[in-house]
Amino acid sequence: MTKRITERPRRLTGPLLLSPVLLLAAAPAAMAGDAAAGAAAWVQQHPQPGGAPARSCATCHTADLTRPGEHVRTGKPIEPLAPSVSPERLTDQAKVEKWLRRNCRWTLGRECTAAEKADFLAYIRAQ
Ligand code: HEC
Q1: 41-99 residue pLDDT tens
Q2: Is 62 in the pocket of ligand 1 (CB under 6 A)?
Q3: Please, are residues 60 and 69 in contact by the beta-carbon 8 Å criterion?
Q4: CA 114 to CA 89: how far, in whole Å?
Q5: Domains of the chain and CATH, by start
Q6: Pocket test for ligand 1, best of 61, 97, 119 (most atoms within 8 A of CB)
Q7: Which 8-state DSSP code applies to residue 69?
Q8: How far is CA 51 from CA 47, 48, 74, 75, in A?
Q9: Fewer Cβ neighbours under 10 Å: the N or C end of the chain?
């Protein structure tokens, strides 16, 4: 009698433990990003208020990520973003998050969505 009772909850734990594992497995696929969408967003011009010139990611990084860029305001050179040329690119998650936050705010006037960031990263990673 007691054996039957203790077996019941054990059967339930199987599917309950599996579901978080399945969610974790699905997460990277959802954030994989679309490189083509990232490429289009990269050169998209964002009009600025007050008659300032429109901005895009290419304003500082250029449209060719294998080439060095130049900070449009400070004139400082920026190493190419393409990992094929600069292997250290996209290797430091904290740095990537910090600069995406800053650059999205400066360029788009707001933070990028998770999907937009994933698209940008998919595009950069492929260069
Ligand atoms: C005003 C100039 C400027 C603009 C515009 C700009 N960036 Fe940047 N970006 C920088 C600077 C400066 C750095 C940090 C210096 C460096 O890493 O060479 C940087 C770094 C980055 C990094 C970090 C890469 C790494 O792992 O080292 C990413 C990713 C990035 N930018 C993406 C973008 C995206 C996406 C946009 C458009 C939404 C954009 N940037 C627009 C200046 C700019």
Answers
A1: 999 999 999 989 999 999 999 999 999 999 999 999 999 999 999 999 999 999 999 99
A2: no
A3: yes
A4: 19
A5: 34-125 (1.10.760.10)
A6: 61
A7: E
A8: 8, 7, 20, 21
A9: N
Entry field: residues in the chain: 127
CB 120 near ligand 1, within 6 Å: yes
Q: Which atom of ligand 1 is nearest to the CA of 71?
A: 2
What are the structure tokens assigned to 96, written together? Answer: 């990537």
**Which amino acid does the sequence have at 101?**
R
Predicted TM-score (pTM) above 0.85: no
Q: How remote is the CA of residue 28 from the centroid of ligand 1, in Å?
A: 23
